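Thread title: Can someone regenerate the structure for this chain?

I was given the following input by a collaborator and told the matching structure tokens would be attached. They weren't. Posting the sequence so someone can regenerate them.
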Amino acid sequence: MEERYKNRMELLQGTLDLLILQTLMWGPQHGYGISQAIRANSGDLLTVDAGSLYPALHRLERQKWIDAKWKVSNNKQDVKVYRLTAAGRKKLTRERTRWEQITDAIAGVLNPAAKRGS
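Best answer:
Regenerated them for you:
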């Protein structure tokens, strides 16, 4: 069982929100579609289970960064489709900037010689 999870990465707190918002920037999507987009676009490294995804979606909806409507899918099932709001687009921009600052800072710690050289 441990081998199955060996190559998976644990998401930093707050990162899931960023990934959801980014995924919805590409267009409205239901929960399963969001999780599949995250998995596919991360080269199968990031997987989001329902126990993490749906509480995050509800939290983002309460914050008014996303909204949702019930629709009937192609296979005649009711699905909740989420979309990014204008406030969500602004939040995504802020969070992407914050993420870039964090990754630059981590890179500086991991490779301080490269940082001094620039």
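Helices lie at 2-5, 15-25, 31-41, 50-62, 86-110, 112-117.
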